[in-house]
Write a structure and sequence with these properties.
The complex is a heterodimer of chains A (111) and B (112). Chain A has no helices and eleven strands. Chain A is mainly beta and 111 residues long. Chain B has 112 residues and is mostly beta strands. In chain B, 0% of the residues lie in helices and 51% in strands. Chain B is globular and about 40 Å long. Chain B starts with a strand and ends with a strand. The chains are: A mainly beta (111), B mainly beta (112).
């Protein structure tokens, strides 16, 4: 069974304090690993898709990396507006692009 | 930027009533999905739809659920006889067949 485990469950940072979120996964044949941002009461907002170990993608203060067992979302010098829940999801090579999500990491950045 | 739109944003219904949640996927997308998120829990897959038929569904998507694409733009989720445990945020999503799946803002369903 596909599993996605995110840690920590919650993270509190000071503005400018860099850190990383972890996503460990078990899937039979990974097609892609997705990162989404979710604000309270809103839908997931697409950030990145990673396809193979060693791949990295960046967007503003965020950088996502992928290994064969886990992915990291690095947040450099975060700002309060980066506060949100960050969701990781895996997509299998077979099937119709179904995503299996983790529970997310709730990030709070204080000014 | 194109987006997935959902209506209603919030609906309160009596247990046993039928509910229809509506979605307008991104216009050139061909793959459509419904996911749900119970308060405080993870986002869960319900069903995928391609070429006017269900392509995949989860164990959650039982006989009380159905999906339809009644015209060229709308995609609907129907819950025939709602239960208390159906209370959740329901997300519609769409994809052009590439590997980016875009989600709508959600429809919050409360069953009382």
């Amino acid at each position: 069974e596909d599993q996605v485990t995110q840690s920590p469950e919650a993270l509190r940072l000071q503005e400018g304090e860099s850190s990383s979120l972890n996503c460990s996964y078990t899937v039979s044949g990974l097609r892609g690993l997705f990162w989404y941002r979710q604000d309270p009461g809103k839908g997931p907002e697409f950030l990145f898709t990673l396809y193979s170990a060693g791949e990295e993608k960046e967007k503003e203060r965020l950088k996502a990396t992928l290994t064969k067992k886990e992915s990291f979302l690095h947040i450099t010098a975060p700002k309060p507006e980066d506060s949100a829940t960050y969701l990781c999801a895996v997509q299998k090579r077979t099937g119709y692009s179904t995503l299996t999500f983790g529970k997310g990491t709730m990030l709070l950045v204080s000014p | 930027e194109p987006e997935v739109t959902q209506t209603p944003s919030h609906q309160v219904t009596q247990m046993g009533q039928e509910v229809i949640l509506r979605c307008v996927p991104i216009s050139n997308h061909l793959y459509f999905y419904w996911y749900r998120q119970i308060l405080g829990q993870k986002v869960e897959f319900l069903v995928s739809f391609y070429n006017n038929e269900i392509s995949e569904k989860s164990e959650i998507f039982d006989d009380q659920f159905s999906v339809e694409r009644p015209d060229g733009s709308n995609f609907t989720l129907k819950i025939r006889s709602t239960k208390l445990e159906d209370s959740a945020m329901y997300f519609c999503a769409s994809s052009d067949g590439g590997n980016t799946i875009y989600f709508g803002e959600g429809s919050w369903l409360t069953v009382v």
